[in-house]
Design brief:
The complex is a heterodimer of chains A (364) and B (290). In chain A, 24% of the residues lie in helices and 35% in strands. Chain A is α+β, with helices and mostly antiparallel strands and 364 residues long. Chain B contains twelve helices and two strands; from the N terminus they run αββααααααααααα. The chains are: A alpha+beta (364), B mainly alpha (290). Chains A and B meet through strand 6 and helix 3 of A and helix 8 and helix 9 of B.
Chain lengths: 364, 290
């Protein structure tokens, strides 16, 4: 296990990058703490797999260094880094039995057979495949194969980190929960540093202590699930996390007030004068329909999601979403919307602006 | 009104195929069968011979010798071409200009008509004017494919390897290209060495195409005629007289139509049998998910 340090790391698949746009991974400095579980979250093509492959040594970064416990491993081959990685599609050695598949990484490192047998038994119990050890891997289904890949990743005790590249994509939904719970338990029991790449926010938020959100080759926010939810650092985070995502509305901000088309909205804190593209962001959870208070809104549609209702509405010519509790009434005369002032974030050019002073309520 | 559920006119749709197969396969084959059970002295006079020709051929050492040579030839070229083809495929550039370049260069021998391949090697190997024959002779190596059995065998084997290894290599290359990158990456993480990558990833994933390559090369080499005929004419003596060369000698050289017909039917049955075995094996492999 190790602390992984990224130092000025960047990567471009183009050997002679001309501009920032050529970089699949833009410059990045970060310390991955020893023994924590991280999720790398982002949409397809945002650079999360690139980052993962650089850490595991499958890809050489075009700039910067990677350190494991302070030791520079940027040029070290994968084998030297002692990393385990599980891929999106199950990789099993078809002609081997399940037992031999699990034993493969240990045997390649010349561990003695009694230790190998013991370890394989342990892992087989963990992934629930004890009774299948003698079977050939070829005939198994996708989720059994992926369990073998997971097992092969965990069979070595001394790995520096366990990396997962969307490992549950091919797994049935009910198995997903089970495997994710098992991973979480493993992390709890053995304390490996784990990095889990996914585009599924539920997966990321339930698995990780810290979620790293990536957008367009850049890390836009690193934080706990709670931080990402309440104080998204970038409009992308607000939009990507949450279902539906945060409402982002162009506004003018002056002190403790925001103005949308001249109408006033209270903010939870005071802001220094801001310039550029100014927007406010409010999660649908913190917006409320009302009869008399707030600003006018035109309700278009109400979707009942069971535990809550999602109200799709038009607000000054823009689509916004409001989440109302299951028992909250939604009536035709409710034509106004209010926002919880403490939960309104201010953005300029898509980045969150820290408030200057608190004016009561919860300040960020 | 009752709905009509059968329509006999549909048979007309199958008719073209039936006619085509009849003229291209069934009628020629039945002609051979006809010859194989009768004796003829020309003038369309036929005498019933029963299984006499078959018995004669089966007890004739000539056919057994030709079969033995044939199996040896097919065995040797498979033992060389399959491993060599895999080796070439493993060492080819996987992408970019040089990959396409290699593919084109390797396809060239496959595009040359068999007759021309034979002629090329026939001249190439000549001791008086051929580059290969002359060079070997100048180096003091005793090489002469028209007189020496070993030289003749080496020549036709090298020729076949030159002509057909590309096919195996191209098929193996296609098999290799279909292996997802993740397999190689996983192998690096599992610290598998080069041999293990080949043994546990590449070879199993190539198995399907390799079976096809083996089948194709076996059948083709088992029926080979043109190239060795052009180079050695089956000689020296009968040293390189393979099955089909022997058959043509018998049928067209000696005009022994009855025995030749019996011979070719047995030849045909052997090929059919081997194809069936291969097919069964391949279907079973498919079922196991390869």
């Amino acid at each position: 296990m190790a602390r992984i340090t990224l130092d000025n790391l960047a990567h471009s698949y183009n050997p002679t990058p001309a501009s920032q746009d050529d970089y699949a991974l833009k410059e990045l400095n970060y310390d991955w703490e020893d023994g924590e579980a991280y999720a790398l979250l982002g949409s397809s093509g945002c650079g999360k797999s690139t980052l993962l492959n650089i850490i595991s040594g499958l890809l050489m970064p075009s700039q910067g260094r990677i350190l494991f416990d302070g030791k520079d491993v940027t040029r070290a081959p994968t084998a030297e880094r002692n990393i385990a990685q599980v891929f999106q599609f199950p990789v099993v050695y078809d002609t081997m039995t399940v037992h031999d598949n699990l034993a493969f990484p240990l045997r390649n490192r010349g561990r003695d057979e009694t230790y190998v047998a013991e370890r394989v038994q342990e892992i087989a119990r963990m992934i629930g495949m004890e009774d299948m050890l003698r079977k050939k891997a070829r005939g198994l289904g996708a989720d059994a194969k992926q369990k073998i890949s997971l097992g092969r990743g965990m069979v070595r005790k001394d790995v520096n980190a366990l990396l997962f590249d969307e490992p549950l994509t091919v797994i049935d939904p009910h198995m997903k929960w089970e495997l994710r719970t098992q991973l979480k338990k493993l992390h709890h029991d053995f304390g490996h540093t784990m990095i889990y790449v996914t585009h599924d926010q539920t997966e990321a938020l339930t698995f990780a202590d810290k979620v790293v959100v990536m957008y367009d080759g850049r890390v836009v926010q690193i934080g706990t699930p709670e931080e990402l939810f309440e104080r998204p650092a970038h409009t992308f985070v607000g939009y990507f996390i949450g279902s539906p995502g945060m409402n982002v509305i162009p506004a003018k901000v002056e002190g403790t007030k925001a103005y949308i088309n001249g109408s006033e909205i209270a903010l939870g804190a005071g802001y220094a004068p801001v310039s550029g593209k100014v927007e406010i962001g409010v999660r649908p959870e913190f917006a409320r329909l009302s009869e008399s208070e707030g600003l006018p809104v035109k309700v278009r549609r109400v979707e009942d999601a069971g535990r809550h209702k999602i109200i799709r509405a038009e607000f000054f010519g823009q689509d916004i979403n409001i989440i109302a509790g299951e028992d909250d009434p939604v009536r035709a005369d409710m034509t106004r919307v209010t926002f919880d002032p403490a939960r309104v974030n201010v953005y300029t050019n898509d980045w969150r602006v820290a408030p200057q002073s608190a004016t009561g309520g919860e300040a960020a | 009104m009752q709905q009509k559920t059968t329509n006999q006119k549909a048979w007309f749709l199958v008719l073209p195929v039936l006619v085509l197969v009849a003229f291209s396969a069934v009628i020629p084959l039945m002609t051979v069968v006809n010859y194989s059970v009768q004796d003829t002295f020309g003038n369309n006079q036929f005498f019933w011979a029963g299984l006499e020709w078959f018995q004669e051929m089966l007890s004739d050492e000539r056919m057994w010798n030709a079969l033995q040579r044939q199996l040896m030839f097919s065995g040797i070229i498979l033992a060389i071409e399959i491993p060599l083809g895999i080796f070439v495929a493993l060492n080819m550039p996987k992408s970019g200009f040089w990959s396409s370049f290699c593919l084109v260069v390797m396809s060239l021998p496959l595009l040359i008509p068999w007759n021309v391949v034979g002629t090329i090697w026939q001249i190439f190997g000549r001791v008086d004017i051929g580059l290969l024959g002359y060079t070997l002779d100048a180096l003091g190596i005793d090489y002469n494919y028209t007189q020496d059995t070993v030289s003749a065998w080496i020549t036709i084997i090298v020729m076949d390897v030159w002509h057909w290894t590309s096919l195996v290599a191209l098929l193996a290359f296609a098999g290799l290209k279909s292996i997802p990158d993740a397999y190689y990456q996983a192998a690096r993480i599992d610290q598998a060495n080069r041999w293990k990558v080949f043994r546990f990833i590449e070879l199993p994933k190539m198995m399907g195409v390799l079976m096809i390559a083996i089948l194709l090369r076996f059948m083709d080499s088992f029926m080979i005629y043109t190239e060795p005929f052009v180079v050695t004419g089956g000689g020296p003596g009968n040293a390189t007289t393979l099955l089909s060369i022997d058959l043509v000698k018998m049928a067209l050289g000696q005009f022994d139509l009855g025995p030749a017909a019996a011979f070719s039917l047995m030849y045909f049955l052997v090929i059919l049998l081997i194809s069936w075995v291969f097919y069964t094996v391949m279907v079973n492999l498919d079922k196991k998910g390869m």
